[in-house]
Amino acid sequence: MKKPIINIYKSTEELAGSFAELLCDKVNEVPNESFLTIALSGGSTPKAIFKFLAENYADKINWSKVKVFWGDERCVAPDDSESNYKMTTDCLLSKISIPAENVFRIYGEAKPAEEVIRYADVLRNNVVSIIGAPSFDIVLLGLGEDGHTASIFPNQIELFGSENLCEIAVHPQTAQRRITITGKVINNAKNIIFLATGKSKAEKVSEIIEHKTGEELFPASLVEAGVDALMWLIDADAAALLKEKQEDQLISDKLNGAAGNGLN
Ligand code: 6PG
Q: Which residue among 85, 143, 148 has the greatest number of ligand 1 atoms within 8 angstroms of its CB, and so is best to mutate?
């Protein structure tokens, strides 16, 4: 299995700049009449990245060639402060020219049992399939302090291996229901990118990146290299407990170009 690419940034701003450059490169590679499909993560980590894209790449990326999906969504209305769609719209989508038909939100307001079926059909009908499952060009993943990713929590780790493309998850503390893609979709992506920043993620980043000894401890441990690449874009705080930091993992401004982000 391919080794993950670990990029460690001095700041969230540098991480956001590197991701923006990477996304721009990938969109520019998309053939005419085709699209780049990306499943976004929710939570707070991506906010800085989405804001950076809105401020600096609104005109640099041809957003009409990007189809936006979500890896998970809280079962709330789209205007609810908990909604990942609302967060993404506030930070990015409302500030770029992306056609409405290119945005495939999960209907958090719908009955979860119905939405989990509808959204799976949306994925089948709008994302190119490889070996019988949708294969996103990019899946963005966050990392919870408990090692969850998307909305697959440690106490429901079996959802990762579901035969379904999507499942209903329940937040272990709040009992909030979520719609989440499963490992069938995550591990079928061409490029999987974990985003993790801040000291609170350092322990799990280290445990998952360095202690991966075949024990599948956390849902995030089950994420394997996509068809092309598995990347970790992390800041220095989140990388603090990594034992071996290779020189080439410490991405500084001078490296922060195509050669610097390592995506295939
Ligand atoms: C969500 C996310 C979830 C998130 C992690 C990290 O809907 O909350 O998809 O998986 O990425 O919980 O959240 P933070 O970025 O807020 O730390």
A: 143
The whole-angstrom separation of Cα 51 and Cα 71 is 19
Is the distance from the beta carbon of residue 4 to the nearest atom of ligand 1 less than 6 Å? no
In order of 70, 71, 92, 248, the CA distances from 84 in angstroms are: 8, 10, 12, 33
The domains located in the chain, with CATH, are: 5-248 (3.40.50.1360)
Instruction: Output the pTM of the full model.
Output: 0.94
Q: Is 262 in the pocket of ligand 1 (CB under 6 A)?
A: no
Per-residue pLDDT tens over the stretch 1-37: 678 999 999 999 999 999 999 999 999 999 999 999 9
- Helix or strand or coil: residue 34? coil
Q: DSSP secondary-structure letter at 151?
A: T
Mutation pick for ligand 1 pocket among 12, 38, 40, 41 (CB with most ligand atoms within 8 Å): 41
What pLDDT score was predicted for residue 256? Answer: 46
**Phi-psi group of 258: left, alpha or beta (phi > 0 → left; psi -120 to 50 → alpha; rest → beta):** alpha
pLDDT of 188 reads 97
Where is average pLDDT lowest: 126-135, 139-148, 214-223? 214-223
Q: What is the DSSP letter of 172?
A: T
Place 131 in a pLDDT band, splitting at 50, 70 and 90: very high
Atom of ligand 1 nearest to the CA of 150: 10
Does the beta carbon of 200 lie inside 6 Å of ligand 1? no
